[in-house]
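Assemble and predict.
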Amino acid sequence: MSTPSENLIKTYNKSFCIKPFTEISNSAIGERMLCCQSEPVGMKIKNPDIAEDFFNNPAMHEIRRKMLAGEEVKQCWQCKESEMASGKSHRTFIMQDFEKEEVDEIFETGKVELKSIDIRFGTKCNLACVMCGPGSSSLIAKEEDDEIGLIDLNDFSLDQIKKYSEGIVLFKTTGGEPMLMSAYKKTLEFFVEKDFAKNIEFTTITNGTIDYSDLMPLMNEFKLFKISHSIDAADESYNYVRWPGKMSRIKRIHKRIVENAKQYKNIKLEWGATIHVLNVNQVVKISKYLQTLGMHNAYNIDMVQIPNYMQPGLVPKQVLDELEVEALQWQDWQPGLYRQEILDFIETLKYNYTKINKDPNNKKVLLDELEVKTIFWKAKRNLDVRDYVPYYKALKTK
Ligand code: SF4
């Protein structure tokens, strides 16, 4: 059977994606992106405003030309990698929602039409997760004394949303932590007041530290309101990988949210794990935890590519093997599509492992960089990685 990637290549080509033709997206520090997964395009969004450069910037024209011609677009390397590893990617996921006629029209006319906005309101965040950086978390910028500091795009973004959101059907925001941003609630109110909400599928990716039950009546006004809660561990290692978050507190919030959301038919809860070198052993544990919430069917797993020293393929082979056994037992016990997705994800991890182990010198460099980071965190956070990641000691090239 063909993979989603092979189907896309057969129908269109290896690089076409609809996002640069339909979506405005920016990073938390205000760089133009093609979507939430792409590399920045190399321009700031205030140029002079988010729509002007989306429609008219020569760099965007060139990216679209390449996509129509099937030429590689360097900003999209993560989708390419992911398709090579598993036959699936953010691109294949997005493209399944579009009709062929719609895409054919783009190929015939080069039409650019704004249908979705994926905007971040800045870098304010109350967590400093191990795979994140100063460009996405103000707490990390503070800890690392990084010159980025705190980027606040609240007023600018809200103004742009008010100007350009008429007619959009998708809206997404992530962090920083969106629920800490003043523009977040105002955006919801604006969409409801203008009567746009009923046509919009709204997605929020939250770090899960905020109980937003009071916003649920507003969220329920949307056509669909998806909220994905980041959860990268299901036991005490959460306290290390999502510092200074605490698993005990997160559990209480999850319970309240799940209970309170039951009365709202348009709110859809999801959980997302970002898997890296320090939490590979959590993949099935998280699924089991979500089962206790009645939510294991709402679990998405992603893999860290950047920073390089956080790639999950740096783990010893034994860790991958143990994870696979655990995933097979989990699937055997109660077969289901979502458990099968865990097994599919393990294939992606194996691909990453093989790639890393082809270059032992580079692997050693990455592990050394990881060690420097964990020493830094120990000094700053007073937490020792060895107390939270059982296989850390075995992470050696020799
Ligand atoms: S190919 Fe991937 S990275 Fe590029 S715009 Fe599409 S979804 Fe985003």
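The longest strand covers residues 267-275.
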